[in-house]
Amino acid sequence: MQKKANHLAAACLSVLTLTAAIGMPAVSAEHYNVYNYDRWDEATPSQAGYAAQRAVSGLDLGCGAFNTPSDLFRDWEDRFYIADSGNNRIVVTDSGFSKATRIYDKLKTTDGETTLKDPEGIYVSRETQCMYIADTGNSRLLVCDLDGNVQLELTRPDSTLYENETFKPQKVVVDKAGNIYMVLNNITNGSAMFNSDGEFQGYFGANSVDATAEVVANYFWNMIATDEMRANSSRNVAAGITSFDIDDEGFIYTVTQSSSSEADRVKKVNPAGYNLFSVLEATFGDLNSVYDSTANENYTTQMVDIDIDDMGRINCLDLETGRVFQYDEDGSLLFILGTTADQLGGFSMKVSAVETMGKNIYVSDAMKNTVTIFTETEFGGIVHNAVALYNAGYYAEALEPWREVLKRDGNYQMAYIGISSALYNEGNYKEAMKYAKLAQSRNLYDKAFEGYRSEWLNQNFTWIILVVVVLIAAAVFFHFRNKKKKKNQPKNLIEMLHEGEEE
Amino acid sequence: MMDLTQKQWVKHSVFHPFEGFEDLRWKKGGSVLYASIVILLWFVAKILHDNLVGYQFAVTNTKMFSIVPYIVQTIAVFLVFVIGNWSICTLLDGEGTIKKIYIYSAYSMIPYVAGLYIRTLLSHVLIQDEVIFITCVTVISTAWSVLLMFNAIKAVHQYSISKTILALLLTFVAMLIILILLVLLVALFQQVYVFVSSVYTEITYRVRV
Fold first, then answer.
1. pLDDT tens digits, one per residue of A127-137
2. Distance between CA A337 and CA A314 in Å, rounded?
3. Nearest CA in chain B to A39
4. 8-state DSSP, A53
5. Are A349 and A462 in the same domain?
6. Chain A: nearest CA to B65, how far in angstroms?
7. Domain identity same for A126 and A48
8. ipTM tops the 0.90 cut
């Protein structure tokens, strides 16, 4: 009896655990609604590609709380540099964000010491072994070695090219040749470019003015306005660049925080200053503005920072919604992560910078004074693997990962394109057509259809020729027979009568 | 001479763009039944073309199918054209009755409708590089229909060329006016409906209390 009761209890327990396992939600444990855009360009719930791990504050690093951190930078040894603007310092941490390894607040110059004031940008160059600090509050850019000895101090250039009164560097990048590019506050001509000796070279990567109705109207009025009126009217000026990053090949990617202009939101600028993304049909950021019913406000994407990771993926940070949009090198959307919330993975309305390392994405928040670390999920890993193979041209190798992606998220748009391309390369045109249709890619479908058609023609060529020959023969035969009949037949009596009438 | 059946009249008017409709009018040919069949075929062709075109040539990604736009784009537009043309040409000494205008303009739509079917079929055997064939069919069938339509209107009202052009332009204006009036009417009736229904609701509340 006792034994039976035990058995019963065991059975009950196993059933309970089983139902518990089944009842567990299959979705990720993110605190916010993860979404992606489906084939109709509509936001659809999606698997999370990244999961928020933890939020690191200055106290966690043992260097005192951050105050308005405004830039993040990772150097070649995976040390992280945080521009802690409010505390007038640069904090360096190890790759795991366990503790602050170094703090730069006083820098040595040839004649003593100098302090930072509200530094908003930081860049460390492997080639020059130098640290570039945009010392915004002091209107200068400091170049110093890693021991904190100032090598060069850039202030407002004395060039006729530089027309602005102020000189407020906010973000800085350095290319492999040591040329310094900086985003200056209130400058709309693009980023200012200095050579390695600190001489002003000119501007680079300016935005263009969208031909909106207002711009066209202004152009019209300016044609008939007097000089005096023109002097009083407002000028059409493109929005200035907000932030930028440089990739391994030396291309500079810029983001512009502007609610009006969509074209220059994210640019990939080649050395000639031409935007390589202008040919893409892709829209960066949210496709439709997001309506918040509690605040009664519409949020349109306003990119504040961009980071190109080691795999060439583009991560851009949206200020309005606190989201990171991750794209592959061709501008196809991979994942959207983050939100505005108080929970882990959520941000205040003042996110400031994004940085990456391997599978991690780091986002700094200037109001929460933290750096949040996101790590790639299993799903994210599969997608990244598939995308990397696909973009490198290994379509066949990418087939299995793409199928795995579809198993987990049937709305993942790129997977259909990947599978279709792989099947096309295999010569499986029929299936490739099916997947191209699902991917809503007309060009892929067209290519697959062309292959399918020529295959079909090759297989059925004999039959087609046979049918054509028979048809021609039949046509010729009936043609001659009808002619013969008409000749031999006597004319219709009524017809003859009619002919007689006409005569 | 020219004792043709209704079927032969259809063929005659389509393949004789310049004299066909004059003959048709002279011999009092043309049937409402065949005209209606043409318009129905146009309606079907439009649906087929938009939804079953080869995917490499598809313009839209239809998420939901609704028949209303197709009715509006074919049958409704045609009827509005007929009514608009009749109302204009009655004022401009046109000789055509509304029945004749209906028949003649339907007949002149035949090449365009046939073109729609041919395009749909061709789109399943051609690739994007060979789109010129489809464009060719589109241009020829449309031009043919325009020519027929012009001569149909000219014949049915016994107009000169310049007067036909004027009549067609005015017909276009009349169509716009009719559509605006229709929209206004619908909006007005909607308001009347809302008014009546709210009065009804109020009364039911009072009755219950």
1. 999 999 999 99
2. 13
3. B61
4. E
5. no
6. 15
7. yes
8. no
CATH, residue A273: 2.120.10.30
**Minimal Cα–Cα distance from B61 to chain A, Å?**
8
CB-based contact, B131 to chain A, within 8 Å: no
Task: Please answer whether residues A265 and A254 qualify as being in contact, where contact means their C-beta atoms are separated by less than 8 angstroms.
Answer: no
- Interface mutation vs chain A, best among B3, B127, B134, most A CBs within 10 Å: B127
A495 within some domain: yes
Q: Do A440 and B56 touch (CB under 8 A)?
A: no
Whether residue B59 lies within 8 A of chain A, CB to CB, comes out as no
Query: Of the candidates B1, B58, B125, which has its C-beta nearest A442's C-beta?
Result: B58
Inside any domain, residue A220 = no
Asked whether residue A37 is assigned to any structural domain, the reply reads: no
- Domain presence at residue A471: yes
Q: Rounded CA gap, A322 and A337, in Å?
A: 9
Same domain (yes/no): A336, A418: no
Q: Which H or E run includes A355?
A: strand A351-357
**What is the tens place of the pLDDT at every residue in A2-49?**
555 556 555 554 544 444 444 444 444 688 889 999 888 888 999 999
For chain A, the domain total comes to 2
Closest alpha carbon to A370 in A74, A66, A119, A91: A66
Give the DSSP H/E element, type plus range, for residue A316.
Answer: strand A314-318
Choose, out of A438, A442, A454, the residue to mutate when testing the contact with B (most B CBs < 10 Å). A442
Residues A346, A470, single domain; the answer is: no
Residue span of the structural domain in which A492 resides = 402-503
**Contact indicator for B153, B104 with CB cutoff of 8 Å:** yes
